[in-house]
Write a structure and sequence with these properties.
Blueprint lengths: L1 H5 L12 E2 L6 E2 L4 E4 L2 E4 H14 L6 H32 L2 H10 L2
Bound molecules: zinc ion (2 copies).
The site of one zinc ion has 8 residues, from strand 4 and helix 2.
Length: 108
Protein backbone atom coordinates (compact mmCIF):
# COMPACT_ATOMS: atom_id res chain seq x y z
CA UNK A 1 0.00 0.00 0.00
CA UNK A 2 2.95 2.31 0.54
CA UNK A 3 3.71 2.19 -3.16
CA UNK A 4 0.29 3.65 -3.94
CA UNK A 5 0.60 6.37 -1.28
CA UNK A 6 3.84 7.64 -2.72
CA UNK A 7 2.30 7.94 -6.13
CA UNK A 8 0.44 10.89 -7.56
CA UNK A 9 -2.59 10.91 -9.82
CA UNK A 10 -1.79 10.66 -13.50
CA UNK A 11 -4.20 13.47 -14.31
CA UNK A 12 -3.76 15.52 -11.12
CA UNK A 13 -0.09 15.57 -10.01
CA UNK A 14 -0.76 17.45 -6.78
CA UNK A 15 -3.26 14.83 -5.68
CA UNK A 16 -2.38 11.62 -3.92
CA UNK A 17 -3.20 8.46 -5.81
CA UNK A 18 -5.67 6.10 -4.14
CA UNK A 19 -5.93 3.44 -6.81
CA UNK A 20 -3.97 1.88 -9.60
CA UNK A 21 -5.64 1.03 -12.87
CA UNK A 22 -5.10 -2.69 -13.57
CA UNK A 23 -5.33 -2.04 -17.32
CA UNK A 24 -2.82 0.74 -17.93
CA UNK A 25 -0.87 0.39 -14.65
CA UNK A 26 -1.14 4.11 -13.92
CA UNK A 27 -2.07 5.69 -10.60
CA UNK A 28 -5.20 7.75 -10.12
CA UNK A 29 -6.93 9.80 -7.46
CA UNK A 30 -10.42 9.14 -6.09
CA UNK A 31 -11.98 11.29 -8.79
CA UNK A 32 -10.20 9.71 -11.72
CA UNK A 33 -10.56 6.07 -10.69
CA UNK A 34 -14.02 4.62 -11.21
CA UNK A 35 -15.47 1.25 -10.46
CA UNK A 36 -16.33 -0.68 -13.58
CA UNK A 37 -17.45 -4.32 -13.60
CA UNK A 38 -16.15 -4.79 -10.05
CA UNK A 39 -12.72 -3.27 -10.78
CA UNK A 40 -11.27 0.19 -10.23
CA UNK A 41 -10.34 1.49 -13.65
CA UNK A 42 -9.38 4.92 -14.92
CA UNK A 43 -11.79 6.82 -17.15
CA UNK A 44 -9.66 6.14 -20.23
CA UNK A 45 -9.69 2.39 -19.73
CA UNK A 46 -13.42 2.34 -18.97
CA UNK A 47 -14.06 4.18 -22.24
CA UNK A 48 -11.73 1.81 -24.06
CA UNK A 49 -13.22 -1.39 -22.60
CA UNK A 50 -16.80 -0.23 -23.12
CA UNK A 51 -15.98 0.71 -26.72
CA UNK A 52 -14.39 -2.71 -27.27
CA UNK A 53 -17.40 -4.37 -25.67
CA UNK A 54 -19.73 -2.44 -27.96
CA UNK A 55 -17.67 -3.49 -30.98
CA UNK A 56 -17.74 -7.11 -29.82
CA UNK A 57 -21.52 -7.14 -29.81
CA UNK A 58 -21.56 -6.80 -33.58
CA UNK A 59 -25.23 -7.67 -34.15
CA UNK A 60 -27.12 -4.74 -32.63
CA UNK A 61 -30.27 -5.45 -30.53
CA UNK A 62 -32.47 -4.14 -33.33
CA UNK A 63 -30.84 -6.48 -35.88
CA UNK A 64 -33.38 -9.29 -35.59
CA UNK A 65 -36.54 -7.12 -35.85
CA UNK A 66 -34.94 -5.29 -38.75
CA UNK A 67 -34.22 -8.55 -40.55
CA UNK A 68 -37.78 -9.73 -39.88
CA UNK A 69 -39.07 -6.46 -41.31
CA UNK A 70 -36.83 -6.91 -44.33
CA UNK A 71 -38.21 -10.42 -44.81
CA UNK A 72 -41.77 -9.12 -44.53
CA UNK A 73 -41.09 -6.38 -47.08
CA UNK A 74 -39.52 -8.95 -49.39
CA UNK A 75 -42.52 -11.23 -48.95
CA UNK A 76 -44.91 -8.33 -49.54
CA UNK A 77 -43.05 -7.39 -52.70
CA UNK A 78 -43.27 -10.99 -53.92
CA UNK A 79 -47.04 -11.03 -53.39
CA UNK A 80 -47.35 -7.57 -54.91
CA UNK A 81 -45.63 -8.70 -58.09
CA UNK A 82 -47.73 -11.89 -58.08
CA UNK A 83 -50.89 -9.79 -57.71
CA UNK A 84 -49.87 -7.49 -60.54
CA UNK A 85 -49.28 -10.50 -62.78
CA UNK A 86 -52.71 -11.90 -61.83
CA UNK A 87 -54.30 -8.51 -62.57
CA UNK A 88 -52.78 -8.44 -66.04
CA UNK A 89 -53.47 -12.11 -66.87
CA UNK A 90 -57.31 -12.46 -66.51
CA UNK A 91 -58.14 -10.19 -69.47
CA UNK A 92 -56.24 -12.55 -71.72
CA UNK A 93 -57.61 -15.65 -69.96
CA UNK A 94 -61.30 -14.81 -69.87
CA UNK A 95 -61.58 -13.21 -73.27
CA UNK A 96 -59.43 -15.83 -74.88
CA UNK A 97 -60.14 -19.41 -75.92
CA UNK A 98 -60.54 -20.67 -72.35
CA UNK A 99 -63.86 -18.79 -71.82
CA UNK A 100 -65.04 -18.60 -75.39
CA UNK A 101 -64.63 -22.18 -76.57
CA UNK A 102 -67.22 -23.78 -74.18
CA UNK A 103 -69.80 -21.23 -75.32
CA UNK A 104 -69.09 -22.04 -78.92
CA UNK A 105 -69.38 -25.72 -78.17
CA UNK A 106 -72.99 -25.31 -77.01
CA UNK A 107 -73.97 -23.45 -80.14
CA UNK A 108 -75.45 -25.65 -82.84
ZN1 LIG B 1 -6.35 2.73 -17.12
ZN1 LIG C 1 -7.03 12.56 -10.66
Amino acid sequence: MNAVRDRRCFHHPPREAVARCPECRRFFCRECAMEHAGRLLCADCIARTSAAGAALRSPPPWGLPLRLLGGLVGLWFLFYVFGRVLLVLPTAFHEGDLAASPMEAFEP
